[in-house]
Amino acid sequence: MRLWVYVLLFACVGAEELHATWYNFSPQPFTDVMRGRYDAEYYDIQAVEWGEIAEGECATDESWYQYYKAADYANKFGSGAYALDDIFDAAAQVLDPEGFYLNYLHCARIFGSEEGWPYLLKAHAAEPERYEAYPALITYYTLIGQIEKRSELLVKMHRAEPIPAGVMDYNYNQLVGCPEGAILLTVGDADTYPSWLLQTGFGFRSDIEVLNLSLLLMDEAHRRRTLTRLGLEVETSASEMSAVDLIRALVSEDRALMLAVSGRPYYQELASERMFLTGLTFQYSDSPIDNLSLLHENYTQNWRTETVFNPLSSDAGQQVADELGQNYLPALLELRQYHLDRFDDRSSFVAAEIEAQIRRLALRSGISAEIEGFLGSSEVPQLASDEPGIHVKRLLKTYPFIPSGTLKLQDESSFTINGFHMGSTEISNSDYQQFLEDLLSQRKFEYLDSAAVIDFQLEGLLSESLVSLGIETLESRGKINSENHPVLNISHRAAELYAIWLTQVVNQDQRREGERKVRFRLPTREEWMYAARGGRQHAPYPWGGPYIRNARGCYLSNFNTDLTEEEPVDTYFFDRAGQPTLESEQTDSEAITKEQRNILSRSSGCPDGAWLTTAVDAYFPNDLGLYNMSGNAAEMIAEPGMTMGGSWLDGPYYMQIETVHEIVQPHPSTGFRLVMEYVD
Question: φ and ψ at 260, to 5 degrees?
Fold first, then answer.
């Protein structure tokens, strides 16, 4: 077909211009976006020049077809404002009403409607080998459930004009990362048709049910038939389903639900804590999954990467692959951070290798400037909106000044600490929710992925004796996700993004015009210990004393008392009536277990009283006005993978100021607080 078009053009321009025409002549035959991608200027020029031919002396049926398609793409991807109905009406004056061209254009004009399909079938009957109609026919056979005919056309389409290798490899990598028997929800042609082709034409991963979300939303009968075939019950009327309703309807206990990364705009109303990035898909799950391990496995063992990172071509087909290639970036950024957080030489090498691949992809996709913000370059991403909903003056009052001084440690080492400001409390769920909502309002989905709060199940974290108390007792001091409790189970990268966002919120506040700029960040290990001591040189705990209870027997921070060792006899416990008594005064008949003692302690009116997390400003602050420097949430520091202060899940050992706990993040024990410093 392309050769025929060139012959047509040659006949019009004359033999003396053969050489220039064959290699450089514009316009070019139409190429759909699954096989070739060009810039806006290209589409504009194609529409103008095909229009001149169609409306000139060299007009043919083919030129009217090319003009209509070029004008359509100029409207979509260029700066065109063509009246397609007018072009169609003009073409209808000269085209055969029984032929391929007019019937195909009639279908294209009203594509997706029931009225358009008879014209498509008539066009196909007129010229069965015109593969330009195959994509539309594949859509039609999908909608009416004739999968065998769809499969036959997919193979014929690929043989007639092969789908670019990079696009095929993208779809291979999309499929290979799915669990066995999964439902995979895609959104466009380039992430759907090649996947179907791989399944039916090449026999690859035919166990996966690949469904196109756009088609399911477009056609109610197709939607109903699909849901019925999958045996899924639908609460919402099928005729009124939104994308989110449909995704939730596809959740099944028997099959994993995978959402193509390419469809992120559809997922903005879904709970981010249920979406786990596993590669080129999110797994939508009520239960946590180890998605980082799956990411690593897909990257190192499963993906075909030659056309991704080292393509041999730079033609229009590769441009389609490069555009799809942007969808690799969220996974690669997560993998890079995962290896950076491991903090060993091998992981650092892998992180550097991934970073180089990220930059190559970003360069070919034309988004290098945006991606540098993720890589920690000097160009910081803009995260805060103009109206983030933060009262800045009130916020700054919650960051007391920590004066300069010297930190002396038990090993006799010492550090000079310059003064800084530190948050008086851990970042709360309410604080963090404002951050997430501000990102969502700006549709910054790529950052929402990194900033997600990962859901977790309490039952797997608590002892059987605590679980047996029941959820009402455990949550007597509030639920873990209560607004004034610390945010937990986020990544180190998420905490860094929050700090960037808060920095921008404060610095762009118009009421601070002319005032000094600030920067928020995670504290260093030494800064954290210095602030936790509250000005006391040798205090093992933030409250200053050597014990974990006060004189009334109340615990002085929120930690896991099930892990408490027996204390010296001169400390206080409670008798069976809940009254304080010295252990040395107890008789054998009054002796109680540690677990019973803890239960009595928490129900005796002491101000600790939390089985899970508690409010970020619970307990007394230290002498510098900082709450919960020990207990409640373990706190991230600048060094990835390290926390300080211990948590509601940890024993008293981790409450000590100098104890550093290495723990993989995100973790249900771990939150963070920030340091603030003036930068000018």
Answer: -60, 135
